[in-house]
UniProtKB/TrEMBL annotation:
It comes from Phytophthora nicotianae. The lineage of its organism: Eukaryota, Sar, Stramenopiles, Oomycota, Peronosporomycetes. This is Uncharacterized protein. It comes from the Eukaryota.
């Protein structure tokens, strides 16, 4: 069963949810995680936005000039021998970008901290270059500060990451944290190394 929702019309259920095209004004309408194998992601050009006459012409070709029947004959002439829809769908240029966008922002940030040595790095330069396997205590508050900087640099919305939400998300990824005295203040954080995050 699928649910069809049109603007201004109550949603209704349809029995067959195969061959559905999902179009949206959002940058993406369905997250492309690695488990989403049966979606083909396409990015359409915006050249004809607002050109009603262009779309009227296309619609007229389908409705009045038998364009639909020609498209139908073209589609049924495609040889499907060896086609297995259970395997991965086409890998378009847009799909890897969509998969990257679907990864939680916190994981993207941790990856960049390790892989790219960005300005919002949680590790000292010495640890990155000289001793990547050495554990270093990193307080959660310091990580949140650097993560927020990264989100601002990437022009992303930081409002959804309160300290509590950030801390819980870290626990899901890194496991439980603990308290340690740093500069005579007890702070909650993690013993991390570059290698352990890799």
């Amino acid at each position: 069963m699928g649910k069809k929702e049109r603007k201004g019309i109550d949603p209704y259920r349809i029995k067959d949810c195969n061959n559905i095209i999902i179009a949206s004004n959002n940058s993406y309408s369905v997250k492309a995680s690695n488990q989403m194998r049966r979606f083909v992601y396409l990015l359409y050009k915006c050249d004809h936005i607002g050109q009603k006459s262009y779309f009227d012409q296309i619609r007229n070709r389908f409705n009045k000039a038998d364009g639909g029947i020609h498209l139908y004959h073209y589609l049924i002439s495609i040889d499907l021998e060896g086609f297995n829809p259970q395997k991965d769908a086409l890998m378009t240029k847009e799909k890897p970008d969509m998969q990257q966008s679907a990864i939680e922002k916190l994981i993207q940030w941790l990856f960049e901290c390790v892989a790219n040595g960005t300005s919002s790095n949680i590790f000292s330069n010495a640890q990155l270059k000289d001793s990547p396997s050495t554990l270093e205590f990193v307080p959660i508050d310091d990580m949140l500060t650097e993560f927020t900087k990264w989100m601002v640099e990437e022009s992303r919305d930081t409002s959804s990451y309160t300290r509590d939400h950030f801390s819980k998300s870290l626990t899901k990824i890194l496991g439980p944290n603990y308290k340690k005295q740093v500069n005579r203040v007890r702070r909650r954080g993690y013993d991390l190394s570059v290698d352990s995050l890799r």
